[in-house]
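## Example pair
The file below holds two records. Each record gives the amino-acid sequence first, followed by its structure token line.
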Amino acid sequence: MTTARIVFVLVAAAVFIVDRVTKNLVASQIEYGSEVAIVDHLVGITNLRNSGAAFGFAPAGAGLFLIASVLVAIGLAVYVLRNPGDQWSFGALGLIMGGTVGNGFDRIVHGTVTDFINFHFWPVFNLADSAITVGVVLLIASYLIRRPTS
């Protein structure tokens, strides 16, 4: 296995594990619908369930998002196995994979996704959502940096 593929697997596994641990902590320690303030009126930890997409978008269609999660995970795995890649791009893909599998796991086990990071000016989200978003941003940045200019 190449170093880039090892990075992909390690990043994906780390994201999945940290996502599971944080969601389990929130679900076991904070009553559903309640918030623990970190900075009053700015950020808190809120135990919510989301049947929609990341950041609470498209609240209906949990089944559709589960199917999308499975397809994305399969597509990422096939891409990583069939293509050469560098550690940075495969690390970004690992972020996306870990987040996708983390939220997909929630959808399979609970039918919804646990969201808990609450910046009061933004929809409530979780670490899996963050990993997916950061992974996509890193991939776009990597493409733009490496793109030949003419």
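Second record, same layout:
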Amino acid sequence: MFQFTALATCLAVMIYFLTIIQVGKARATYGIKAPAVSGNPDFERIYRVQMNTLEWMPVFLPALWLFAIYISDTLAAALGVVWIAGRIVYMIAYQKAANKRGPGFAIQAGAAGILWLGATVSILWRLIHP
């Protein structure tokens, strides 16, 4: 069973839901009516946090699960929590100023990269050494 990875997945989805709620609130605060996504820089940064999180989910989630299956549930979940922490750092920093988003982005990209690389190497290893 992969209960730790499943919990990390639920937490990642919760963070994404949080970004959705923030965009909804920001639309009301800044008077940005759907489908518009521009017009106020403060709104645009909040919107970009949501969209960037969405853009990373198809990279992060398969890598997380493949890493859990081929390497370790516990280690995958730990790296998943690092990814989530990176997304939170990114969200808080980017909402303040676009030029502050780098550290959070680097944390989550590093965690996703380790998950992807670890899964890929493990899969290839098993193909070569059945």
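Notes on the second record: Residues 12 and 46 are 17 Å apart (CA to CA). The chain has a mean pLDDT of 98.
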